[in-house]
Amino acid sequence: xxxxxxxxxxxxxxxxxxxxxxxxxxxxxxxxxxxxxxxxxxxxxxxxxxxxxxxxxxxxxxxxxxxxxxxxxxxxxxxxxxxxxxxxxxxxxxxxxxxxxxxxxxxxxxxxxxxxxxxxxxxxxxxxxxxxxxxxxxxxxxxxxxxxxxxxxxxxxxxxxxxxxxxxxxxxxxxxxxxxxxxxxxxxxxxxxxxxxxxxxxxxxxxxxxxxxxxxxxxxxxxxxxxxxxxxxxxxxxxxxxxxxxxxxxxxxxxxxxxxxxxxxxxxxxxxxxxxxxxxxxxxxxxxxxxxxxxxxxxxxxxxxxxxxxxxxxxxxxxxxxxxxxxxxxxxxxxxxxxxxxxxxxxxxxxxxxxxxxxxxxxxxxxxxxxxxxxxxxxxxxxxxxxxxxxx
Length: 392
Description:
Number of domains: 2
Strand content: 15-25%
Strand order of the largest sheet: 3-2-4-5-6
Structural class: alpha/beta
CATH class of the largest domain: Alpha Beta
CATH superfamily of the largest domain: Response regulator
Oligomer: single chain
Number of helices: 12
Low-confidence stretches: 1-33
Helix content: 25-40%
Largest sheet: 5 strands, parallel
């Protein structure tokens, strides 16, 4: 990626903008000539997903506070997390003369947004299929994650990889992974029942065959009086299986308790996370993983964890509550819009969102191409009770 345009509120907006504001003050009438930047905010502010919507709105308000420009006005509207109310609210934005909107959050609510002319929507969805032409998918999408994993696999010379995904879940994500440049030794779809998962992983890893190989070898060595055979016997008696598996890495497309069940099943099948590299997709730094032995050394792509912690701390200090894990993207969306407007003589034009040099947000580097935010993510691994950055 070429030299990045600096978007980050922590770096650019809190330093560069304030510095240039001082220069503006010396220019007699500049503030009077500024145009007002109207930004629509379309979030679920009531109903089942109210807490998520309110967290996103607070993140946007926090970014607004950090920018400290009274010429930016936000206009929140309730999407109620359904396509019809989303569409009705979007039409109201048009009547207000709003050309740029942050939201909606959920992919399902994009259904009719393509019918709204002259408005660009920065949606926080991470789904990238069939995005309306006037909408940008700003979430941490699977394509960006796979591109980062591919770079890491190439560096680590990982080549014999199993792809595992739960049956009938995450179909689109799994399809995108299968169709990517990543090469997989085998693709396996497992049952979501924890009890069945264990038996399926045993078959996949040939656990019973390796266990029988161990038993046969021990039986032979027990009949020998040779010193070397007795030494080998002592070592084998500490093992559960004999022989190696025929893969060097596993990528599991899953989350939370199911992911824990899958990785625990590999441990029960005597597949060590010290000998095989285990990967998953973006987990938003789930600290409940720290207490699971099977999840040690688990690798996953993610945003800038250092900046995320700073954002979470600032959010908590401001509102006395923890933000939704994805709220940092709403904060960056406001910063992105402001940067484009500010750097274009206080005029927002959608084409600016597609600058080839890309941007730097709190969540990391990204460039918007074909209605999709393509993020340059990092790779982290779980080690003890920490997330350790191992790549980029």
